[in-house]
Amino acid sequence: MEELELDYSQLQETVERLLPKEFPFSAEAFFKQFATGEGLQDFWAELFRWLLKNITFPVEQGVRLLFLVLFSAFFSNLSKAFQKNGASQMGYLCIYLLIALHITGGFQASVSIVKEGIETICGLASVLFPTYCISIAFVTGSLTATGYYQGTAFFITMFEYVAAIVLLPLSRVYLLLSLASCMQKEPIFSKLLTILENVFSWLKKTIVGIVLAFSAIQGILLPAIDNLKKSAIIKTASTIPGVGNLVDGAWETVVGAGVVLKNAIGIGGVCLLFLLGVLPLANLTMQYLLYRVIGALAEPVLQDQTEQLLSYAGTAQKLLLQTMSLGMILFLMLLVVMTRITV
To answer: Which residues does the chain have with pLDDT short of 50?
Structure first.
């Protein structure tokens, strides 16, 4: 294993910049833990403690929103009791605008979390995959490593572009249309909002399908070509009198050590991506659950407009959560497939 040392300096520098200071990290020691199986329980225990310490529970935000929702229900019932009194209707409209402003502020905070999370995982992937492809080149062959390196570089750029240009603006448009739609007694953009949800789902499935197709094609073709080249070289060397068996045995030993190191980097990379992405995902999940829980608690007294608004706000948060999770799934899926196919 000592002859197969890789340069972790760039990866170490990137992870130290992305991780908080209270979470110490050594890339070389981290991957060696996966290669030897030692010290992993301490790592996961430290990760769990760090996650509980840093996750944000939006209790104060939820209390404020719940009071606004209850006030909107009060003015709504008051306007029904005094149908000719415009003051109660105006009061309901003012409370509705306050709820919309509160939802918009929470949504913008979630957008910032998604942007920062995407930059983090893409920054890690941009230094993790080249390191991993070096180990693939040693174990499987240069053709496989080059193919996966070019493919992963393309997918990192593609996901950053699609998230910034398509997915996040689509989520913003969805929220704005839902705010405008719920101002009327009957939603006026319900069909358009359904179309936007379907478009988002279609884009997400298309991206996942492209990555799976790429991984399958690369995994079937390129390793077979590299293995053919290696087997021809090894068989030629094994026919040399006196040293043929020695060369064959030494090659198997070195390649076996390389496979262990490659798999350690692959599984360690999966854990690194999970480590850097789990906190944004947890915070986004809390925001999503906030609207669902408040909508469920206040359902007996809510007017249809406010109930629909909370439902749409929860869906908008879900779109942001799916955008962040899509990046995690893509890179985790690539690492797992590359680790399995290039054994």
So the answer is: 1-4
At residue 341, the 3 state secondary structure works out as helix
Q: For the residues of 101-149, what is the DSSP string, one character each?
A: HHHHHHHHHHHHHHHHHHHHHHHHHHHHHHHHHHHHHHHT-HHHHHHHH
Q: CA end-to-end span of the chain, whole Å?
A: 17
Q: Is 115 exposed, middle or buried (0-12, 13-18, 19+ CB in 10 A)?
A: middle
Q: State the amino acid at position 287 in one-letter form.
A: Q
**DSSP string over 195-250:** HHHHHHHHHHHHHHHHHHHHHHHHHHHHHHHHHHHHHHHHHHHHTSTTTHHHHHHH
Buried b (16+ CB within 10 A) or exposed e, 247-265: beeeeeeebebbbbbbbbb
Q: What angle do CA 52, 56, 59 make, to 5 degrees?
A: 120
The contacts of residue 167 (CB under 8 Å, 6+ apart) are: 200, 203, 319, 323, 326
Contact between 288 and 314 under an 8 Å Cβ cutoff? The reply is yes
pTM of the model: 0.81
Longest dimension (CA), the chain: 106
Which of 266, 277, 261 is closest to 335 using CA atoms? 266
Cα–Cα distance between 166 and 243 in angstroms, integer?
60
Specify the pLDDT at position 168.
92
Residue type, 42: D
pLDDT tens profile 2-24: 444 556 666 777 776 766 665 66
